[in-house]
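F.,

This is the one I mentioned.
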């Protein structure tokens, strides 16, 4: 995937792995989150042509973080993540609905959950020999970015912007930690 600035205020993200799901996730995140805590660029349009997805969105000025530059603002980043996790839902899955995607899910299988019981059942089937299966229903479903990584955080002055909402969804908060184990 690549991102190209096309005007002073617009950029296009494109590639074979850019999807309508990511576009919908970004739209929901932008509408749901308080921009004074975390800025999410507005996604204006999605186009699929020749197997390549294109998302037209607002361009974000600033510097992309790395581990060194993220450390001094770790407390602010923790507040951003807490704010994201404060957004809840009753149905697990992508912010904009539909099948799940990302490193936690099968690549060639459309997995969609209708409710928390469905999510628990799917998870239990994948741990057939486990002595103790986690009870996912005792965990609230929170908005999870699922790639809260310095490369997806842009800072401009005091404004923190979060990009790449491709794997985002409503899951137990510990899902963020599990993703980091894969990455």
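My design for it:
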């Amino acid at each position: 995937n690549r991102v190209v600035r096309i005007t002073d205020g617009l950029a296009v993200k494109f590639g074979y792995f850019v999807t309508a799901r990511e576009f919908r996730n970004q739209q929901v995140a932008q509408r749901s989150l308080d921009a004074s805590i975390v800025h999410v660029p507005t996604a204006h349009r999605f186009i699929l042509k020749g197997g390549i997805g294109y998302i037209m969105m607002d361009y974000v000025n600033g510097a992309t973080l790395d581990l060194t530059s993220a450390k001094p603002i770790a407390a602010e980043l923790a507040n951003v993540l807490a704010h994201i996790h404060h957004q809840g839902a009753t149905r697990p899955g992508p912010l904009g609905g539909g099948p799940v995607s990302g490193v936690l899910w099968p690549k060639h299988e459309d997995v969609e959950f209708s409710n928390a019981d469905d999510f628990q059942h799917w998870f239990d089937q994948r741990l057939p020999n486990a002595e103790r299966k986690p009870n996912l229903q005792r965990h609230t479903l929170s908005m999870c970015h699922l790639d809260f990584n310095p490369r997806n955080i842009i800072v401009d002055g005091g404004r923190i912007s979060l990009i790449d909402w491709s794997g985002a969804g409503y899951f137990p908060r510990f899902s963020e930690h599990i993703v980091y184990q894969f990455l």
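Residues 2-181 form one domain.

Talk soon.
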